[in-house]
Amino acid sequence: YIHLQEITGNQDYLVRAKELTDWVCTHFSEPETGFFYFTHQDQQDILVRKKEVYDGATPSGNAVMCANLLYLSLVFDLPEFKERAMAMLGALENAIVKYPGSFGVWAGQLQIQTKGVVELAITGKNWQIQVPQVLQAYIPHKIIQWGETNLAFFPLLVGRESNEDAAFYICKDYSCKAPIFNIADFLANV
């Protein structure tokens, strides 16, 4: 759902991603470490509740949840999500650095936290027209939110309305530079 929102601009996908993340936190959490079990808390037909942290051919559920928590913490301004994800990263940091091949997704998240995230807000009457060009550009470590109107529960979009066809905001910690109204200038500044 997170990536569907980035492609479509439909904020309902983010709301659904948060709902699913809340559900997973409720039913799969290991309270002692902050990691997640592979099985639901009510499942009775298992001997041991497994907790996977190694990334192999497929990423571990915990690595994916860490990425989800970090992304959603920025989108919804949820410090508790960020604290949990950072605790997960911190618990594995030495192993990630020593054995990055076994912790590929974790290593990517550690790099994002080290380098920082670029927050991009794109608003205006015709923001949809700009989507293909923005998505074709290589912009690593980004969060993109698109929208025509002020959506109060998305801090990155609050106060960023525009009567222009499209207004591009480059932000860090919800503090944005002056809007840019030309896509070429925007892409040059990202």
Name a few traits of the molecule.
190 residues; alpha+beta; 2 domains; four-stranded mixed sheet; elongated
Characterization of this structure:
This protein is an alpha+beta fold and 190 residues long. The chain has 2 domains: 2-115, no CATH class; 118-189, no CATH class. 47% of the residues lie in helices and 11% in strands. The protein is built from 7 helices and 4 strands. It has helices spanning 2-8, 12-28, 61-76, 79-98, 104-115, 127-136, 183-189, and strands at 118-123, 142-147, 167-172, 175-176. Strands 2-1-3-4 form a 4-stranded mixed sheet, with helices on both faces. It is elongated and about 60 Å long.
- Distance from N terminus to C terminus (CA atoms, Å) equals 24 Å
Summarize the main sheet.
4 strands, mixed
Query: Rg to the nearest angstrom?
Result: 18 Å
> What topology, given as strand order, has the largest sheet?
2-1-3-4
Our count of domains comes out at 2
User: What's the shape?
Assistant: elongated
What level of helicity do the residues show? 40-55%
What oligomerization state is this entry in? single chain
> What would you call the structural class?
alpha+beta
What value does the average pLDDT take?
A: 90
Strand content: 5-15%
Q: How many DSSP helices? A: 7
Write the layout of secondary structure elements.
Layout: H1 2-8, H2 12-28, H3 61-76, H4 79-98, H5 104-115, E1 118-123, H6 127-136, E2 142-147, E3 167-172, E4 175-176, H7 183-189
Parallel strand pairs: 1-2
Antiparallel strand pairs: 1-3, 3-4
